[in-house]
Design a protein that fits this description.
Blueprint: H1 2-8, E1 16-27, E2 30-42, E3 47-51, H2 58-66, E4 73-78, E5 81-82, E6 90-93, H3 105-109, H4 111-115, H5 119-122, H6 124-132, H7 148-160, E7 166-170, H8 178-195, E8 198-202, H9 206-212, E9 215-219, E10 226-231, H10 243-255
Parallel strand pairs: 3-8, 3-9, 6-7, 7-8
Antiparallel strand pairs: 1-2, 1-4, 4-5, 9-10
Helix pairs in contact: 6-7, 9-10
């Protein structure tokens, strides 16, 4: 099944380039700058995590990459072409599952295909992604009948049905209990390996970043700029007690201003 999914997306992934991006919002008649001259290159198929203080601009960077906003200065490119608006190649997954409560799991997953006029031609994709996220027995359930982890799986399936080449993840497991979060981390990793999309993950969890990502980008406080980039040169699956990861965790915490171990 994973191979079938990968084959439907011939390119599989995209490169993302952030070039000298600064961004600001207007609030109560004054400017609030959230990003300051951020430049970043993400290779096709790479898994990158963004770490930084709350409110520093991590989610704003995801919105710019999704095409939901346009940078005040600089530009964001997909495979060398400026991003000018949303595109099903680039899907943003939020912390909340944001499922439509009046629609079944299957109908929720179908929304993207419906909006693009592709439901009839690609309805088989719904069954494929349901199996991929292990929800094939719950297609006729409603969101209120799902656990938090199952709802987040449904949200991932709704993204994956569009064969995204870039998956933008904004604290997708932040509201889950610790055991469910661990399971979902492993499932996300399996999805990334099997489908080949490029991934950009915002997280406040240093350990999560180290367990999942090829590279961890550390942002400063607002207005955010890049203060460190750490490559995680460890094969998957990774162990939390790996001495190399423990050392990287300590180094990242220090970059975030936490000098003592926690």
């Amino acid at each position: 099944m994973a191979l079938a999914l990968a084959e439907t997306n011939a390119a599989g992934s995209i490169a993302l380039d952030v070039e000298g991006v600064s961004h600001r919002y207007e609030s109560d008649g004054r400017d609030l700058q959230v990003l300051d001259d951020v430049s970043l290159t993400i290779a096709p198929g790479e898994f990158v995590a963004l770490l930084g203080p709350s409110g520093c601009g991590k989610s704003t960077l995801l919105r710019l990459a999704a095409g939901l906003e346009k940078a005040t200065r600089g530009r964001v490119l997909e495979d060398g072409k400026p991003i000018t608006g949303p595109n099903p190649d680039r899907i943003l997954v939020f912390q909340d599952a944001t499922l439509f409560p009046w629609r079944t799991v299957r109908a929720n997953i179908a929304t993207g295909l419906e909006a693009r006029g592709l439901l009839t031609a690609l309805e088989h994709r719904i069954d494929e992604v349901l199996k991929l996220v292990k929800l094939e027995g719950f297609s006729n359930f409603y969101p209120h009948q799902l656990s938090g982890g199952m709802a987040q799986r449904a949200a991932l399936a709704r993204a994956l049905v569009n064969d995204p080449k870039l998956l933008l993840l904004d604290e997708p497991f932040g509201k889950l209990d610790s055991l469910t979060r661990l399971r979902m981390q492993n499932e996300l990793l399996d999805l990334w390996k099997s489908t080949g999309f490029t991934a950009l993950l915002v997280t406040h969890d240093v350990e999560e970043a180290l367990l999942l990502a090829d590279r961890v980008i550390v942002l400063s406080d607002r207005p955010a700029s890049i203060i460190a980039q750490v490559r995680v040169d460890r094969p998957h699956p990774r162990r939390r007690d790996d001495a190399g990861l423990v050392a990287l965790r300590r180094a990242l915490l220090e970059k975030l201003g936490i000098s003592h171990d926690v």
